[in-house]
Amino acid sequence: MSTTSGRPRGRRPGHDDTRGTIREAAARLFEADGYDAVSLRAIARAADVDPALVHHYFTSKADLYVQAAFGTQWDIDEFVRDILRGPHDQVGRRAAKAFLDRWDTDQNHHQEYLGTVTRSAERGRHAVTELFAREVFAPIAASFGHHNAPYRGQLAASALLGMMVSRHELALPLLASLSLRSLVTPLGATLQHYLVEEW
């Protein structure tokens, strides 16, 4: 019987970039399987690290996805709280402005990622929609007591991402020619209907 054992998982020796290794493993899994189907334990296995290290470097699955996909940190819980602060009749507008402001801070990178997503495998395309629907929009809808919050979250995600794909990938002339600021009002009205209003 062999007495050798596999290399123990944990913090990697030397100067290996453990955070980067986890991020790369996560990116591969999210592209292959989508957002909802991937667990932090699965990411730890793919990166060959202890699951505790995933929690050490990343606050949540959403945080890890954002860093893997967009190369930036984004506190989604705080983002949702900011959208919910203030008058309820302006939630949709605040959500639209918050997303478009984030897009505008690094437009070239986000546009490049959007192009990659639209050309990727089906589950990879679904991952970003699942992230926004589950982690951002569904909690907003749920805060207003809507029993169909997951459905509303998917509608809102489809509105946001559909507009961005139409503008940046399909390059629909009128949408492509408008400034991001001019899109806040129409997109905000749509998000308000999906997330807040009774129907």
From the N-terminal CA to the C-terminal CA, the straight-line distance is 67 Å
Please give the domain count.
2
Oligomer: single chain
CATH architecture of the largest domain: Orthogonal Bundle
Number of helices: 11
Helix content: over 70%
> C-alpha Rg, in Å?
19 Å
Q: Your description of this structure?
A:
Helix content is 70%, strand content 0%. The longest helix is centred in the middle third of the chain and has 21 residues, at 122-142. By secondary structure, the protein is mainly α. The protein has helices at residues 18-33, 40-47, 51-57, 61-70, 76-84, 91-105, 107-119, 122-142, 149-168, 173-177, 180-195. The chain has two domains: 18-69, Arc Repressor Mutant, subunit A, CATH 1.10.10.60; 75-195, Tetracycline Repressor, domain 2 (Orthogonal Bundle), CATH 1.10.357.
